[in-house]
Design goal:
Layout lengths: L9 H10 L3 E5 L5 E4 L5 H4 L2 H7 L3 E3 L7 E3 L3 E9 L6 H18 L5 E4 L3 E4 L2 E11 L2 E9 L5 H6 L15 H4 L12 H15 L5
Parallel strand pairs: 2-3
Antiparallel strand pairs: 1-5, 2-4, 5-9, 6-7, 7-8, 8-9
């Protein structure tokens, strides 16, 4: 990726900075793409040779968090809003993550819990990771929920991260992560997106 290429969902941040209206985007990735956080290093975080052989691009996003692989079968939420505090990032992440918990509960998925700094998990297995970018009172949040995607792609393209939450306990990508489908819930991505949109549309305008 060259410096002139846009960051993932960076247009949302630009739009908010122009009109100051809270904005969100919920979508299923249509292609495979590796995405690094602002401090990510492609030489150590990715298997670049495998990405090249498979013709898979990599990009960056604003904000922290580890390197991820976005694929079909995931639900991505990106949202930007003004908040009351320049701090409280963990609180804000948990609040927005609770929207996923509510949306999934409406579809009959239970046992989803906050884990680590800002993950969601079922039992000991991760189903959602997040990233936050801040400019004082502006919060730019991104997260990907694993619904029906192929987790083996994480092993193929992602090296073991240097920093991991305690509950990972040394597990590989495929042992650490799971999907909604793997946990026995045969939900479509479109149904999850619809349920999530209802919750986000109600929650985002009043998030402070």
């Amino acid at each position: 990726m060259t410096a002139s290429e846009p960051t993932v969902n960076g247009d949302l941040l630009e739009q908010f900075q122009n009109d100051r209206v809270p904005i969100s985007r919920i979508y299923e990735p249509q292609e495979i793409c590796a995405v690094l956080g602002a401090a990510g290093n492609p030489d150590t975080d990715l298997y670049l040779d495998r990405l090249t052989v498979d013709g898979v691009p990599w990009r960056r996003r604003r904000g922290g968090g580890g390197t991820v692989v976005l694929t079909p079968g995931q639900v991505v939420l990106a949202c930007v809003t003004e908040v009351a505090s320049p701090f409280r990032n963990k609180e804000y992440a948990e609040k927005i993550n609770s929207w996923f918990i509510e949306a999934l509960a409406r579809l009959g998925v239970h046992g989803v819990e906050h884990r680590g700094i800002s993950d969601l998990a079922i039992g000991e297995k991760k189903i959602l990771g997040t990233s936050i970018y801040r400019t004082r009172l502006v919060l730019f949040y991104q997260a990907s929920l694993l619904v029906t995607n192929d987790i083996s792609l994480f092993t193929r393209y992602l090296a073991m991260p240097a920093r991991v939450p305690d509950y990972r306990a040394g597990r590989t990508h495929e042992d650490f992560c799971t999907t909604i489908a793997r946990e026995g819930y045969p939900l479509s991505v479109s149904n999850v997106m619809k349920s999530l949109k209802e919750v986000v549309d109600a929650g985002l305008p009043v998030l402070r």
